[in-house]
Amino acid sequence: EVYFKNLSKQKQKEVMEKNGNNHKLRVCVATCNRADYSKLAPIMFGIKAEPQFFELDVVVLGSHLIDDYGNTYRMIEQDDFDIHTRLHTIVRGEDEAAMVESVGLALVKLPDVLNRLKPDIMIVHGDRFDALALATSAALMNIRILHIEGGEVSGTIDDSIRHAITKLAHYHVCCTRSAEQHLIAMCEDHDRILLAGCPSYDKLLSAKNKDYMSIIRVWLGEDVKTRDYIVALQHPVTTDIKHSIKMFELTLDALISFNKRTLVLFPNVDAGSKEMVRVMRKKGIEHHPNFRAVKHVPFDQFIQLVAHAGCMIGNSSCGVREVGAFGTPVINLGTRQTGRETGENVLHVRDADTQDKILHALQLQFGKQYPCSKIYGDGNAVPRILKFLKSIDLKEPLQKKFCFPPVKDNISQDIDHILETQSALAVDLGGTNLRVAIVSMKGEIVKKYTQLNPKTYEDRLELILKMCVEAASEAVNVNCRILGVGISTGGRVNPREGIVLHSTKLIQEWSSVDLRTPISDALHLPVWVDNDGNCAALAERKFGHGKGVENFVTLITGTGIGGGIVHQHELIHGSSFCAAELGHIVVSLDGPECLCGSQGCIEAYASGIALQREAKKLHDDDLLLVEGMSMKKEEIVSAAHLIQAAKLGNTKAESILRTAGTALGLGVVNILHTVNPSLVILSGVLANHYVNAVKDVINQQALSSVKTVDVVVSNLADPALLGAASLVLDYTTRRIY
């Protein structure tokens, strides 16, 4: 504790040195009404008590200077504060227009005052329209603002005004942890927020033991006992004036019926207050024997009155905030304080639309005693605030900085948003399935359609067109603009003409097929076609490990073995579009027969078809299944069974996979010695099973100059579709092929 006190003193010393050793912080406190003065007065006393640090200027405006509201500026004078300036800013009328005109009048008068005072900082309290004028003037005149009670939540227009002042203020003193969190959520700088508690609690928590009976007798009569009277304080709700006047009328009727001595305070200066006063006079409240109607009670005395009341009723923030410190029962009427944190002493009557509801609430609450609540303060707010003021460095930039959380930018009018919604139709023609997808510029598969790949050319082309038309129509609903169609297919492809020259045996009737013309004519979109291995490389270049890499090779390890080569950031097709047929690199002169008709190709060893072939041989010889494996009679033997057997310790299966991995590794070594890439990407369902074997072969067989190559497994979930989309997205945006 001593350490932190010394640290604090040192910081204050450093701040004073920065601000100039002889410079006192010139603080302007502006007070608008009796309610905000009760919160500001303790701070003003604290500032006045430390003249070596502060100079205090007091500006009084608003309802303080109106006789109908008690000329409450007099209590400021009685507290021995010098009032530097009195500003008459209230335009009478007590309606919405009068409130607006009052703000305007204050904005006209305040600049001259602030120019003369030249304060270092202005302290503004709360959520009144007068306070908004103060904060606006100070902010526009480059005067730092300290806002008291920001971050709280309540009803009416006050909520909006409070948050508006928060955005103008440079420093914030809040009363509760929730209010602090609200300020942070509003992007205010945490370093400029002080959780101090409510300044009025500094006086409240030390006030209860004073001579209260004489105060009660002065205001309510000689015959009144403690806990046997009511304090009523109700203000208009500016967002629903008509209803709030009706609710006040019902409240007075309920109080008359309840037949207890009641102190009624006049409402504040908000729009609708004049009508509320008329209701009081219409019901004869000022002359009723059970009622005492007053314009103002000094705060010290008001504390004693609510502390010993049988109940407080109305919609004043005082009821839900200060009165909780005494455990006095409170009936909160309507929506004016909706959202405020309250103690258990507060009973809410949100929809106070009948006299019976209010009367029933009085019967429930009157005379009870609740535990004291310290939600809004612990009695030490002022020392914290003074310490906070001393820490302000006037040499820091005046411009506010907001701490925005990481969120998705709302950039509907930004070029990036346009690029994000630009999309491609991607088509993947596999041996089994035909897939079409809408793919965004960022590689997100927005929508995907899958059908079995028909066996004949006519059926296949008809299905491609049907699926593309359906996807293009759906693109409008998902806010995607289709730039073109990209097609990934097995076999040798002429990408310049969009023609499949020769297909693999996996796709029948698929040679010398012009895909570009019929699809482009049907959809009125440009069409690109390429080999599935090349598409996988394009997918890696745009979305995967190959992004930004100048030279890399992609190897697909699936049903067959394929791949693509990127050299100096461009895909290599070769003179007859046969480059990167990596699955047909020969690694053994007398190896197994490949589907291409040759022997010893990588594909004959390491493809899914090759592994399935070897698994079937083992199964036919009853050498595949080991303990922990089982197969149904009708189940087709696949490469997955071979891999499972190897994992469970089948030595013959392990040997086959080792040979396959070695064959693939030797093929990669040949690639390294031919094109010298800096990266090799293994893609497809078998990639994870081969990656370590490939690295081992490179270490054993490759020249030392290429052993440093990186070998990684692709992290793309669907390289064929993403590659097909890349054909469109890359070339339509850069306008070259």
TrEMBL record:
Superkingdom of origin = Eukaryota
What Pfam families does the record tag this protein with? Answer: Epimerase_2, ROK
Signal sequence, renumbered to the chain: none
| Keyword Transferase listed | yes
Give UniProt keywords alphabetically: Allosteric enzyme, ATP-binding, Cytoplasm, Hydrolase, Kinase, Metal-binding, Multifunctional enzyme, Nucleotide-binding, Phosphoprotein, Transferase, Zinc
* Cellular component, GO annotation: cytosol
User: What is the protein's major site of localization?
Assistant: cytoplasm
Which amino acid positions bind an N-acyl-D-mannosamine, per UniProt? 492, 504, 532, 581, 584, 603
Tell me, which GO biological process terms does this entry list? UDP-N-acetylglucosamine metabolic process
CDD domains attached to this UniProt entry: ASKHA_NBD_ROK_GNE (cd24060), GTB_UDP-GlcNAc_2-Epimerase (cd03786)
Q: Acetylation: present as a keyword of the record?
A: no
Annotated positions binding Zn(2+): 584, 594, 596, 601
Q: What is its EC number?
A: 2.7.1.60, 3.2.1.183
Q: Which SUPFAM superfamilies match?
A: Actin-like ATPase domain (SSF53067), UDP-Glycosyltransferase/glycogen phosphorylase (SSF53756)
Q: How does it assemble?
A: Homodimer. Homotetramer. Homohexamer. The hexameric form exhibits both enzyme activities, whereas the dimeric form only catalyzes the phosphorylation of N-acyl-D-mannosamine.
Q: Which NCBIfam families match?
A: NeuC_NnaA
Write out the similarity annotation: In the C-terminal section; belongs to the ROK (NagC/XylR) family. In the N-terminal section; belongs to the UDP-N-acetylglucosamine 2-epimerase family.
Looking up PANTHER family in the UniProt record yields: BIFUNCTIONAL UDP-N-ACETYLGLUCOSAMINE 2-EPIMERASE_N-ACETYLMANNOSAMINE KINASE, ROK (REPRESSOR, ORF, KINASE) FAMILY
Query: By what name is this protein known?
Result: Bifunctional UDP-N-acetylglucosamine 2-epimerase/N-acetylmannosamine kinase
Q: Corresponding gene?
A: Gne
